[in-house]
């Protein structure tokens, strides 16, 4: 298993332009911000909380794994690589004002040692191999985190965390490797934070049989150790090593720095479940074309660049930013809202 020192060294080398560990790292713009969740609440409009979704534009309410072919049915993707028609989604962060109204926190692309990524909202995706890995199969899906959890002690801080980003420039890297140092499970509640970086790291071990499970978790497991190290060794119950998927989100909180706007009690920043960091979660549905992801892992494709040996082609930001769909549960999600979008359709403040 790689140590944090090894990962830190890899990050440092990447910052200096040397490739120490090949991994895919690429931007995904927002496909849509919508109250649907085909993994946990298939077929339901106005699900319990709001999500921001990225990836292939065949995303829909049901995403029936027996019939929905993401790679075949999508005509564009909001992610950098044209071959990646997968869907990725997370909860949305809101600012709660003193008067009780809510405002969705905007997102920006992430900078860091590997270079700036450009996206319109959305998030950054990593696929980190550790030795020989087996790519996901069509129909594979999984969930990281628990949308109902309120106890930070029930969350591995090495897999789900938040960082107070004290620079107004997302490209001015703050801190070390993800989910280390002063990173917390809870969302930072401090006006000194100009950005809040959220990290969600998925399990890397698979039972080798089931593409999903009733809780969307039991068919996968975390390997030895934690953090962005490729996943570590796998248990005998889940012996197949997968690429490590990591979501990285930059929530831009600079517009909410005036403390007089903050509520007199309780948190100012919450997720769309009206809960804090322990409820952070991410959903994943695999949709890469053919064996392109397996080849990308085998051939050592790196960052967000063309990789001819695996057939990967990187789109321009203008191309992937243009891939969007309409809300399937129509309601306002931007500007000041009277209440969190939960239950009935949201209305403007």
From TrEMBL:
It comes from the Eukaryota. The keyword Nucleotide-binding does not apply. Residues 1-20 form the signal peptide. Pfam families: DUF1996. Keywords: Signal. Residues 37-288 form the DUF1996 domain. PANTHER family: DUF1996 DOMAIN-CONTAINING PROTEIN, PTHR43662. This is DUF1996 domain-containing protein. It comes from Neurospora crassa (strain ATCC 24698 / 74-OR23-1A / CBS 708.71 / DSM 1257 / FGSC 987).
